[in-house]
Specification:
Layout: H1 2-26, E1 39-43, E2 56-63, E3 66-71, E4 75-79, E5 92-95, E6 99-109, E7 117-121, E8 124-127, H2 130-138, E9 144-153, H3 157-163, E10 167-171, H4 174-177, H5 185-202
Parallel strand pairs: 5-9
Antiparallel strand pairs: 1-2, 1-10, 2-3, 3-9, 4-5, 6-8, 6-9, 7-8
Helix pairs in contact: 1-5
Length: about 210
């Protein structure tokens, strides 16, 4: 009987470790050295500021001069045509952040470089030039989102916030950018982050 219980307990522990290990592979880093353009940063549950709580942000620029990014999970009920009337697009407009909140930009997925665009990930580009944006959206790509405004940090500012526990860092992928349920994106990524923390807590220390 005791051997059966031991096998059950061992199996349960093994299952839990495998489950947590899988979550850890999907989870985040809290090391500011992992920041780079193309990273996705996720606000911690207890993020102290009022600007970025429960935000998921794709970093579009990162360097010694600071960082910039676009919030991915602030979908509005407004259509793109409200800010780009010539496009006549009914796709949802997103709020990209509080900086330059009247400036329009788009993230587009493309196998080739879009004109006047900045590459963020292998197949993702940011277009902020108005003329190029209008030309691109005249024949919309299969995957794109349009944003008002962006996020920005001064030199060393984002690194300090990460070190203070304000952000989790994930590798960026197009599925986060074009997630079908952006309203729940933050909670899902926070769950991954929590899973990694749980796994770290279960790992024996020597």
């Amino acid at each position: 009987m005791s051997s059966v219980l031991f096998r059950l307990r061992s199996g349960g522990i093994l299952f839990l470790l495998v489950l947590c290990s899988a979550a850890a592979t999907l989870a985040q880093s809290d090391d500011a050295r992992k920041l780079h353009a193309g990273s996705v940063i996720v606000a911690a549950s207890d993020y102290p500021g009022r600007v970025y709580p429960q935000s998921v942000i794709l970093l579009t620029h990162y360097g010694p001069d600071g960082a910039a990014g676009i919030m991915l999970n602030r979908k509005t009920p407004l259509p793109v045509s409200d800010v780009l009337p010539a496009s006549k697009l009914s796709s949802s407009l997103y709020l990209g952040g509080p900086a330059s909140n009247h400036a329009v930009q788009a993230i587009v997925q493309s196998v080739s470089t879009a004109p006047q665009a900045s590459r963020v990930l292998r197949d993702l580009f940011v277009i902020s030039d108005q003329s190029s944006l209008e030309k691109t959206l005249a024949q919309p790509p299969a995957q794109f989102h349009v944003y008002l405004g962006h996020c920005e940090w001064g030199a060393g500012q984002l690194e300090g916030e990460v070190e203070d526990g304000g952000w989790y860092i994930f590798a960026g992928h197009s599925q986060e950018v074009f997630d079908e349920k952006p309203e729940s994106l933050w909670s899902r990524l926070i769950t991954r982050a929590t899973s990694k923390v749980l796994f770290a807590g279960l790992t024996p220390r020597h």
